[in-house]
Write a structure and sequence with these properties.
Length: 460
């Protein structure tokens, strides 16, 4: 399998993509200026473009030592910095310095993420260094370029298939601080009305029942293990964990989920998976819910720019804080993704969730959707924007507060900004601003929450 992987990568990078960074590496070595100089000491006046052409000829001829000083000089010419970096990276790759080559390609992409040829070269260097996960991410972004020749796109898919069949694990980590406007996810109301004897009585809420703000330490971890069983099947193991620690511990919030199952790939475009799921949540230092269930997923690639996924999730929930919340939870989700550029992706999702709980007043149906947009920008920035809108209808009234069943409108928005030019032990700074709001027919359940996560993140 290793031979096939390297053969595919070599074929891929040998393909001509007509990118500006390497368009001129084609001249015959015999036309190199210094070879035509007969004097012992030879002086020539060249424009920056002519010097670049000479450096390209020397690089093509494998005369890297002579090309390097020319490229070092050209790196100080702003208009030719991309070409100089690319050729310097090309030489580093050819001489076995894959880490240096990768760093140069990353610098080019940080300034201009639309350079598909450079992205393919970066993916090849990541393969050479054994970073198959990083290579797969770069190939995935490159695959979105609609100008790719058909044979190159086909080779990318073949290489990604091999990477997926060989790569056993993935791990994403972040940690930082999080200012939060509502650490107890409580109402902002000062009082609520309760129904007594055909009338209503206002009830003042104490401070512990109202929204409180605070700043805590936060971290999250997401990992997966994929072990091939046959050519088209693999065993799956997934772990997701996240937590936030606030002063005093009363509002600490931690959650963990583990899933395992099997994935089947009937074709190079379609995959199907089924997994058993177990989850636990702790709040204020105490376990509050335990879940066990299953999730089923189907994903298919419609073309290099479009893909669609469907997921079904069914779980049994045991609520340790209030047995009325114990019961079943189920959901269906459909997501469509479309590449709108060489490094930008738009998505939309529709979902239906149903809670069948012990108390009908807490059982509900929620219907909603999410739209998102994100990707890589120049100057080392990456971003993501998303918004969610949903409506929830409950099965029965909460007679203490209302004679009619509760219904909610729920809103959510999220914006993420990362800066990949800064790396500390592989971690890059990232900021996520999230806002959620519930407009409930019963004021006690209406709330709003704003969180800002300042973290360092790394993706293995």
């Amino acid at each position: 399998m290793t031979i096939r992987l390297w053969a595919s990568a070599a074929a891929l990078t040998a393909a001509s993509l007509a990118a500006p960074a390497c368009a001129q590496i084609s001249a015959p070595a015999s036309s190199i200026l210094i070879d035509r100089c007969a004097a012992a000491t030879c002086t020539a006046k060249l424009t920056p473009d002519q010097l670049l052409a000479e450096a390209e000829k020397l690089t093509l001829a494998g005369r890297y030592g002579e090309a390097r000083p020319m490229l070092a000089a050209l790196s100080n010419v702003p208009a030719l910095r991309v070409q100089a970096r690319f050729l310097t990276g090309f030489i580093a790759a050819k001489t076995g310095d894959h880490a240096h080559a990768a760093s140069l390609y990353k610098a080019i992409l940080a300034d201009d993420p639309k350079q598909t040829r450079v992205r393919l070269e970066l993916a090849r260097e990541m393969l050479a260094m054994g970073d198959k996960g990083g290579a797969d991410r770069q190939f995935k972004i490159a695959e979105q370029d609609k100008d790719l020749p058909i044979d190159v796109a086909r080779t990318i898919r073949a290489v990604r298939d091999v990477i997926r069949s060989q790569r056993a694990w993935r791990l994403d980590i972040d940690f930082g601080i999080v200012p939060d406007s509502n650490i107890n996810n409580a109402t902002g109301a000062d009082s609520v009305n309760i129904l007594i004897g055909g009338g209503s009585l206002p009830l003042q809420l104490d401070q512990n029942s109202r929204a409180r703000s605070g700043t805590g330490e936060t971290a999250s971890l997401s990992g997966s293990l994929r072990l091939p069983m046959t050519h088209k099947t693999a065993a799956l193991f997934d772990l997701d964990a996240a937590g936030t620690n606030f002063a005093g511990g009363a509002y600490d919030d931690y959650a963990a989920q583990f899933a395992s199952g099997i994935e089947v790939r009937p074709s190079d475009k379609t995959s199907f998976s089924i997994e058993g799921v177990g989850a636990e949540r702790w709040f204020g230092g105490h376990p509050i819910t335990t879940q066990i269930g299953t999730k089923i997923g189907l994903q298919t690639v419609l073309d290099p720019s479009d893909r669609i996924g469907v997921q079904f999730d069914l779980r049994r929930t045991r609520a340790l804080f209030d047995d009325d919340y114990t019961g079943w939870q189920g959901g269906a989700y459909v997501t469509y993704e479309h590449a709108v550029g060489k490094s930008l992706l738009a998505s939309t999702s529709l979902f239906v969730r149903r809670d069948w709980l012990r108390a009908d007043a807490y059982s509900n149906v929620e219907i909603g959707g999410t739209i998102g947009f994100g990707g890589e920008l120049s100057h080392g920035l990456n971003f993501g924007l998303s918004g969610t809108l949903s409506h929830a209808s409950y099965d029965a009234p909460m007679w203490l507060f209302s004679a009619t069943p509760r219904h909610d409108w729920r809103y959510g928005a999220r914006a993420t900004l990362g800066y990949r030019k800064i790396r500390v032990f592989g971690f890059s700074p990232q900021m996520t601003l999230s806002y959620s709001r519930t407009d409930a027919s019963i004021p006690l359940y209406a709330n709003a929450r704003t969180r800002v996560r300042f973290t360092l993140a790394r993706y293995f």
